[in-house]
Amino acid sequence: MLGKIASIMAQITAKLEVVVRFVSIxxxxxxxxxxxxQVARRTVIGKSFVExxxxxxxxxxxxxxxxxxxxxxxxxxxxxxxxxSKLPPLGRRVLDIVVNLIILVALVWITIDxxxxxxxxxxxxxxxxxxxSGWWYMSFPIGMAFACIFLLDNVLQAIITPLNNLSAETPxx
Length: 173
Known about the structure:
mainly alpha; elongated
């Protein structure tokens, strides 16, 4: 049963990973283009678009949030191996699962709290752009929700893999 759930979760997160990576690349390309245009315009004319500067700040928040979730998916987020490298393989796996579960609980809390903060900020306009500041803050709970999904899959796969290996080694009568 748990193996079936982990298999379905792996398929869903694989597709979600493609979407997150694609959106991250597009957002980053637009951000780089906007900043390049601002620098070029400021260099040539000596003036910049204030709207484009604020847009770049909002876009940077979206890029950061999506990048965070992608690093969680690829398991390239920060890990301190000073202690875990001294543990036996089973101890490392258990520690990895426990740490990821603690991070998952924190991310769920941050996502929920970030969403309520975003809803409050939907009443406040941005300084220059004609949109509400909630659209800026919305990047964080959305990115963290993706990170939660990816982290849950990482934990499920970490639990299932040894169970599958154990059942493969056990002789069947």
